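User: quick one, fold this
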Amino acid sequence: MNIHRLDLNNSILCEYMIGIRDITLQKNRTLFKSHLKFIGRLMAYEISKTLSFTAKSVQTPLDTYSGFELQQQPVLACILRAALPFYDGFSEVFSQADTLFIAASRNYNNETTFEIAQHYFAGPKLGSAPLILCDTMLASGLSIHDCINLILQHGQTGPIHVACVLASEPGITFLKTAFASSSITLWCGAVDQNLNAHAYIVPGLGDAGDLAFGEKYTI
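Assistant:
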């Protein structure tokens, strides 16, 4: 597994990463979501540099111009619901991409142990096109692990890029072990070292889904 940590080089991304962690900014739901969306745009641009392009000529009002376009549009995959603002940034950059939606949630056995439940899987037919799996947080790695396996079971043969705003060291280690020989690349806005007893990233930023959309009520 290849890993790209965007926090290792100073850029405007660093300012947005501070913003989404700031409990004062988090009180403004619109601003919090716009930060996630902008981080998605920045990461989509970085990922685009690794994709394949092909030459194309077009007619301008004055002459012919030769440039490059994507050889194959990627498929975007969004893990509901926390990833939606982050995914929006990707969908603006890859505006012609098809989208796969996956709903995954934690089902707690007790206060500290849980399993991942997948409730929904809807999108295009998968194949050789690159797939970008968007999720705001890579904490324990269990939900992304299960989603990748589901994507592979549904026919994905092309490269998979996992994009997350924030990752934990334990989560990265888990995915590296699980997909050591797979064609998967992990992109992180920043990496924190620890998880707490509830498998939340520390210092982290809290529950991204609740901050973006309101505290959830589970029936």
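User: anything notable?
Assistant: The mean pLDDT is 92.
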